[in-house]
Amino acid sequence: MRVIGLFCAFVGSLPATANSFVPSTSHGSTNLPTNNEGTIKMTSDSNIEPVYAAKTVSAFDKYKKEHAQSIKSPSKYWGKLAREVLDWEVPFDSHRVLQGDLTNGDVRWFSGGKLNVAYNALDRHDPKKLAMIWEGDEPDDVRRITYGEMTNKVSQIANALKAKGVKKGQVVTIYMPMIPELAMTMLACARIGAVHSVVFAGFSSDALGSRIQAANSEVVVTADHGLRGSKRIPLKDIVNAAVEHVKDKDLVKHVLVWERNYEGPESEAPYEMNSNDVRMDILVDDQRPYCPPEPMEAEENLFILYTSGSTGLPKGLVHTTGGYALYAAHTTKTTFDLAPDDIFACVADCGWITGHSYVVYGPLLNGATTFMFESTPVYPDEGRYWDMVQRHKITQFYTAPTAIRLLMRYGEEAVQKYDLSSLKVLGTVGEPINPEAWRWYYEVVGKSKCTIVDTYWQTETGGHIVTNIPGVTPMKPGSCTLPFYGIDAVVLDPADGHVVEPDENGKAEGVMAVRQPWPGMARTCLGDHARYKTVYLKPYPGYYFTGDSVMRDEEGNHFIIGRVDDIINVSGHRIGTAEVESALVAHPAVAQAAVVGRPHDLKGQSIAAFCMLRKGYEESPELLTELKMNVRHEVGAFCSPDLIVVSPTLPMTRSGKIMRRILRKIVCGETDSLGDISTLADPSIVDTLIEKVGKK
Ligand code: WTA
Questions:
Q1: Which residue range or ranges hold the AMP-dependent synthetase/ligase domain (predicted)?
Q2: Distance between CA atoms of 15 and 189, rounded to whole angstroms?
Q3: 429 CA to middle of ligand 1, Å?
């Protein structure tokens, strides 16, 4: 079996229908070439929304001063922090804190310095302190792991990887459920200088196979199965199919398999053993519980993470050791106002960047207790998150707007049953949060006492780049507010790349960019630096380009409008149109396909696909099901289109370019603002499509 159920980072299965939470105040018009028609509309009028003040004016003033200084002297700011926050094996030279720039794409932080991230995340903390509280699919399945225990176990895993031939610099692919062994395998790689590539366990075997191939990964670590809402997900079977899918048949040397319910070396393996499979629990138990941490040069690779781009195959973004570790640690501490005894819960999956930075690296580098969660917010019922907050006395809780919108549907009672008084900070990430959801989170969950931090960032940025800071900068519903320290955020005119000056009302609209390097930024795409430069640095020379459009208000607060490229954001998951389109075209019936996002009350966006059939094929309910299955097989169930429209042709220019802009307008019902359609080869297709979508 290759397909698994809808498997979202934060929410698990989403019901198909929902109340509408789209705010009544809309964002207002923009002339930008965005695809923001496909996102939930945001309010941006500061006169409508109350601003929730910072605790003291002086704290806010201090932020302004420190932020300005961090921009003016980045080497001074980050150099001092790097020495305070991290333990270095070999200190970096103060003259080499930052080298290179965004124009050349040769950024280096702390080069010459050496450190080990696993050592920093584990060994140096109090061995008796809890490093992790893990809660499995069933609420009574709880594990508590101290720093001492985790240090030893990570060492054993590191020795096991070495025993199977893993060397410094090699890529280890990890395809695992959200169990502690996932975090520990990541840290074990970091300990020996191997580069982990975690592939979200909702991706199909085909998608996993192409990522194994692209990263040239000889070792794959998985588990026999995972559990989500009592559903068993046969991960090992998916890995078997993936290994078959890898083009280079000799590439994968070993598949190392954790058992979700390991019962000791005498037990029988709960899966079929292939010749290159190794039972990880048995191998690990045999290892010495100490593995010397490999000193890594600050710019050596820590991990890669595949993420969707506008075109082509997903990119393997490369994060390096020193800069990423510092940025993950510093943002966790600052944005979440982290104190030493906090129980920090980020309920994202480690298959995405949020899980990397805020389940594993950020909290552990700070010596806090991280909470890891395997299940969904609605299993066994919709009170699950709040029940966990009460039982574990969680102090920070970090989730996505899609989960908040889902839980809002169940009403306040499901929250009010629980004692949430331990909570201090509530975080949101992944997509713009509509003010209604923001207010519900603030009032119903936070009892108007917690700070909501709306954290804007990306796989590429390593950590938060725009966010409010508890007690320091004001919050504003629907806005991620102000840039983080060291982030020189600018709004650029997409037409000419100039910095947009505030208009007569103090507002600026354009695309979001950063003018200066920061330590957490991804340095390259694995094996393809040209692509990295083309996507992020060349569109606006001298700037890092985020791909998002933004409105900045008169107080400097940022409102993210949406992607300006062909990336769709479904339940906070980045999905590239190209991946879904190629999965549709892989079906023999489909000649051409175009995929766009359309607003969805819960998921933010859902996928609408337009397919042109080959001669001899006709539309039928069976065909539509097969097409959806193709997307599930080739990419993953979470990318399955909600709407498929079979069309005699697609809206193309005379030169054959598909005009997705028109398709987006049609699926959003904005047919009175289609713009110029005279450049289409066949303008009459527009009416046909409007009629077809209307009938769906
Ligand atoms: C979107 C997730 C508005 C944005 C950490 C970005 C957001 C993309 C926010 C990156 C936010 C993330 N407000 N939009 N607070 N956070 N986004 O790489 O479009 O999975 O470019 O990283 O999510 O998604 P990624």
A1: 125-517
A2: 38
A3: 6
